[in-house]
TrEMBL record:
This is DNA polymerase IV. CDD domains: PolY_Pol_IV_kappa. The keyword Metal-binding applies. InterPro entries: DNA/RNA_pol_sf, DNA_pol_Y-fam_lit_finger_sf, DNA_pol_Y-fam_little_finger, DNA_polymerase-Y, DNApol_IV, PolY_HhH_motif, Rev_trsase/Diguanyl_cyclase, UmuC. It comes from Flavobacterium cyanobacteriorum. It is found in: Cytoplasm. The lineage of its organism: Bacteria, Pseudomonadati, Bacteroidota, Flavobacteriia, Flavobacteriales.
Amino acid sequence: MDMPFPIRKIIHVDMDAFYASVEQLDNPELRGRALAVGGGEKRGVVAAASYEARKFGVRSAMSGFLAKKKCPHLIFVRPRFERYTEISKKIRNIFYEYTDLVEPLSLDEAYLDVTRNKKGNPSATMLASEIRQRIFEETGLTASAGISINKFIAKVASDYNKPNGQKTVNPDEVTAFLENLPIGKFYGVGRVTEERMYQLGIFTGRELKEKTREYLTEHFGKSGTFYYNVVRGIHTSEVKPGRIAKSVGAEHTFFENLVSEVFMEEKLHDIASELERRLKKKKAAGKTVTLKIKYSDFTLQTRSKTLPYFISDKALIMEAVTELLYQEKLKNSVRLLGISLANLNTDAENKVKKQVAVQLKFDF
């Protein structure tokens, strides 16, 4: 298959229900049980749910009250992020045995570029299988993987055979894979965008592909160009180890500490509006959204999410920030909130470069 862009061998590794699986690993009594990390029957938000709980509709960012209503026998456990970080480091060390091009997205997922790898193995599929086996042997946890020609397709593919599976999309399979993919499965299409696409008659990649670039940008702004490209298998972003820290942000310290996520969400709308104004002034957009939380005891916490496309408008910023806010339970009352965007389109590494047409035949 001839493609007017570089073809790489990318693996996206995603741990299966990571936080919940760690809790079940450390406590045998929890294995096979419907489990939620974080949350509670009266207050709090679910940070992660075991697959046993997901069968009842329990999901991350759901209130503990609703989760218990959906699954009356649900067990809540407190999150232990030091333990999750400890295991995440072990997993990352396994990745580095195969390649130095590792881009972590969070504690439980990462991209690996194995086009040239330390094992000298030309099959990315075999490498992914070996990495997953190593993770299981050394941590007792399962992982899923997606393998393809770029980060976007690998990310989508890793969700295809979850849990404890993998999916390879070879170069000659890309077109059919993306055309048949339900629009909600496209990485970067959230629930709000999915509903908007449904209203426009876009249900799969095939309908998305029928829309012109102009049509998509008219309805989805800058994200429209991203959708136009990825449905054609075009996503030239490289795996970037060690992201640069340049960012644009806004924050606010409160006269009275906040104790409810609902009140915090209201304040974040104002902060997001200010951030949007600063981004427009700098003519900048970014991919990595970070929520900054300073507690009443002055301890600081940051939560980040990297998107597959650049954003600068308030609606998309809030969509990501809201997810981060409910990602895990707050440790205390909050005196400061901040939002920043990094991995900017104004960074030298993100400026558009002229792409040379490359035809590579890989054994995936």
